[in-house]
Amino acid sequence: MLQENQVGTTTVLDAAIEAGCSGIVHVSSIVALLRAGARLDHESPLGVALGPYTRSKVDSERVARDRQAAGAPVTIVNPGAILGPRDPYLGESDGVIRDILRGRLPTWPRGGMQWVDVRDTADVVVAALGRPGRRYLVPGENVSLPHETLRAVTGRRLPAVRMPLRAALPVLQLGYNTGWSFLPHTVEGARVIALDTRVDYSATVDELSIGGRSLAESMRDSVRWLAEAGHIGPRAAGRCFDSPR
């Protein structure tokens, strides 16, 4: 990530600028803006690095901001953790939902971070094409314990305990170092959650008229898709199939 993300961003943006593109969107992340306990918005400065992924996102967005400052028609979009149906690669957030429904994540770090729907993210990216020089945060909801919304949409108990970061890190680090599939391994993700940032996306709503789906709708659609795609069984999906689409 450290070798490729910044170089890849530079290569693609400069190629688009050289080709004369009138609208270029760099999809970054809220993790490029992180600061402990901060309220993030479209004017937030670049944040702190908590590991290789967040550092690569900070470095990549710095490239995009430099191109904006030079007058290139670049827009930056910062989504939170992206979830949603029809995920061709089973991304991290949908993978987390799958693992919670399988009973593999009975603990969760204390703190919170924003989750956004992939369809809302796509809508913001498309709308941002005509707004060069701007930055937009994607509408979504702050999540302190995803199990709570999953309980509501599935009707399942899904017990979970929130733990301080210092208590969770030894197990996460062991999973990260060994690659054992039965252990969680998202060390950097836990550090992001522990910062407990909030996201102010009001500028996106005001300028682009995109308000975003509820977390319950996004999770219900994600769970249905996970079951349809064979990532979880029908029993794990609970009553998600009982409610109207």
From TrEMBL:
Pfam families: Epimerase
Domain NAD-dependent epimerase/dehydratase: 2-131
Name of protein: NAD-dependent epimerase/dehydratase domain-containing protein
Species of origin: Nocardioides koreensis
